[in-house]
Amino acid sequence: MDMRVAINFIAKINVWRLNSRNKKMKPILLLRGLLLSLSLLVAFPSIAHHGWSEYEQTKLIKLTGKVIQNGYEHPHGFIKLSADGKEWVAVLAPPFRMENRGLLKTDIADGAQVTVEGYVNRSKPDEMRAERITVSNKTIELR
Amino acid sequence: MSTPLVALKGFWLAQAMKYSTWLYPTVETVHIWGVGMLFGSVVLMDLRVLGLGKAVDYSALSRLGIAVSLLGFSLAVLTGSMLFITHAGDLIASRLFILKMCLIFLLITNAVLLRMRVVINAATKAQAVISLVGWASVIGLGRWLAYV
Fold it and tell me: What is the pLDDT of residues B89-137, one digit of tens each?
């Protein structure tokens, strides 16, 4: 929904209420409209923007290596892998999504050879958020 | 990581939160129920203090509002603790989390002082504003915490 539409809608309700009462605009009504509009203004960007801003999204990196630790767990799965001469943590997706898209627990078992593509965490240089993972000849989108 | 945090990681409930298919999403859902009940009733009571809805009897609204907000708060604390033990290490180290907890403590103190009062005056109105802004901020901090 367009935010201006929402705000206009609220303004129209207020005008309608005013007309139907045939009174001068009460300050409290104005306050109510303002509060509603303000809460929408605050709420909308946070709904549209789904976190993840911690990751450097302008540079996609690709890592291939062996899984040395794994977690098929809430709220997000992860794997630890040795690639590029160091140990990386790749954040995967919630277990439900991994399961739905066919990334099984056994696919990311320790010792599995995987390729992950994703973005590096700005404050943790050895953590990346994987956009997709390639394992046992299948590529699974995680976002 | 300190010893209690390591111990917490192995706690069966923390393990169940991570590995059970339905527990984590269910707990998240109940957390929102709690927050919704708490914030919804707090907003109604605070707006009444600030002069809206004068037709509604203040003490009757307060009785219902306090009951619903306490139930909501209890649900939120219970489920919040379950979410906490799943990420204890990260959360203890997070300034946002500490800020959220301090703010909740202050708001509870504010709520006890505010809801004990029977009359509405300038002081209670100021407390109602603190309550509104405060609880709204707690929700904001909670949302932020989930995505850092």
Answer: 889 999 999 999 999 999 999 999 999 998 999 999 999 999 999 999 9
Mutation target for B interface from A47, A74, A76, A129: give the one with most B CBs within 10 A. Answer: A74
Nearest CA in chain B to A31: B52
Q: What percent of chain A has pLDDT over 90?
A: 55
A68 & A104 share domain? yes
Quick one: A84 and A21 in the same domain? no
Mean pLDDT of chain B: 94
How many domains is chain B built from?
1
Phi, psi of A142 (to 5 degrees): -105, -10
**Closest alpha carbon within chain B to A77:** B18
Question: Does one domain contain both A90 and A137?
Answer: yes
- Residue from A34, A39, A54 nearest A125 by CA: A54
B148 to A51: CB separation less than 8 angstroms, yes or no: yes
d(CA B69, CA B50): 18
Count of domains forming chain A: 2
Question: CB-based contacts of B33: which residues, under 8 Å, 6+ apart?
Answer: B72, B75
Show the domain range for A94.
61-141
ipTM above 0.85, yes or no: no
Whichever domain contains A137, its CATH number is 2.40.50.1010
Confidence of residue B7 (pLDDT cuts 50, 70, 90): confident
Residue pairs spanning A and B at CB distance below 8 A: 28
Residue A66 and residue A122 in one domain? yes
> Residue A53 domain-assigned?
no
- Model pTM? 0.73
Instruction: Return the SS3 of B60.
Output: helix
